[in-house]
Write a structure and sequence with these properties.
Elements lengths: L3 H9 L7 H12 L1 H4 L4 H8 L3 H10 L5 H14 L3 H9 L7 H17 L2 H12 L4 E4 L5 H13 L4 E4 L3 H9 L6 E6 L5 H13 L3 E5 L11 E4 L12 H18 L1 H16 L4
Parallel strand pairs: 1-2, 1-3, 3-4, 4-5
Helix pairs in contact: 1-2, 2-5, 4-5, 8-13, 9-13, 10-13, 11-12, 13-14
């Protein structure tokens, strides 16, 4: 059994003494992350012989609003401590998703996002982008596609936005050219990336407008950096990219709303160019 979730659970209690029922749930979460990380409130309640309300109170004891918000961090700690082979083994030994089930799982992730996300976060990032000279987005692996889509759509709105999803040396060069008037978005989701964390810390030295989309807020590298936790874990070998896409689409929608005629003008200009180059 991995010790990381156990250590994390105990560190979150901050030396406070829980009630007997909450202590029972805490012990289960610490000792059985394999079962609890992807369980529902009802399943944890059944396993610990307490009522679901006690499970929710346990997450509140740890400083979270409820089970959904807690699981974003708890699952991240669990997954970060696993190798790729262990992740595959964990999923294949439980309930791997097939066909339509995968879509249903994505719908659940969107519901988790809607329940946990603060609308002010969307507005803050949108405002930072519109008030910046440039926006730079960094990512790797599966979530590079999410970054590419965002860059394309942002450019349609007339935003000076570039993405860097390849070699770390290229990403270092991009961050090194950042100024205090730029916004940097770092997508560090699913497996923990030390390279992206180091880049985030470096970016904070260059600008105060640094945002990281991450599994949790446990890897905060700077007081300047704002971490936006997104639920991406799933019952599949691959993570869900839906929540990251939905969040960034919401940011773009907020930009369109705030810019009004300016955004519309930019889109009309692009449509003119599409026709000029026979893009239909």
């Amino acid at each position: 059994m991995s010790s990381a979730p156990s250590q994390w659970i105990h560190s979150q209690t901050s030396g406070r003494k829980p009630s007997r029922a909450i202590a029972t749930v805490l012990d289960y979460l610490a000792e059985h992350p394999q079962e609890a990380a992807f369980a529902t409130v009802q399943e944890v309640a059944l396993a610990t012989e307490v009522n679901p309300a006690t499970v929710v109170r346990t997450t509140q004891f740890l400083g979270y609003e409820g089970w959904t918000a807690f699981c974003v961090d708890y699952r991240a700690v669990f997954l970060e401590d696993l190798s790729a082979g262990q992740v595959i083994g964990k999923i294949s030994s439980t309930t791997p998703l097939h066909g339509i089930d995968s879509i249903v799982e994505d719908a659940r992730k969107l519901q988790e996002l809607a329940e946990a996300l603060d609308i002010d976060t969307i507005e803050k990032l949108a405002s930072s982008i519109t008030n910046s000279q440039r926006t730079i987005i960094l990512s790797t692996g599966t979530f590079s596609g999410v970054g590419t889509q965002f860059v394309h759509n942002a450019q349609l709105l007339g935003i000076h936005c570039t993405g860097h999803f390849g070699a770390p040396s290229e990403q270092i060069n991009a961050v090194n050219a950042v100024t205090s008037e730029d916004t940097i978005i770092i997508i560090s989701l699913w497996k923990y990336s030390k390279v992206l964390d180091n880049l985030a810390e470096f970016a904070c030295e260059k600008s105060s407008n640094v945002f990281k989309l991450g599994n949790s807020q446990n890897h905060q590298t700077s007081s300047v950096l704002e971490t936006i936790p997104l639920p991406v874990d799933s019952g599949r070998i691959f993570p869900s990219t839906i929540t990251a896409v939905a969040f960034l689409q919401a940011v773009l929608s907020e930009i369109v709303h705030s810019q009004g005629a300016k955004a519309q003008e930019s889109l009309e200009q692009m449509e003119h160019l599409w026709k000029r180059f026979s893009i239909t």
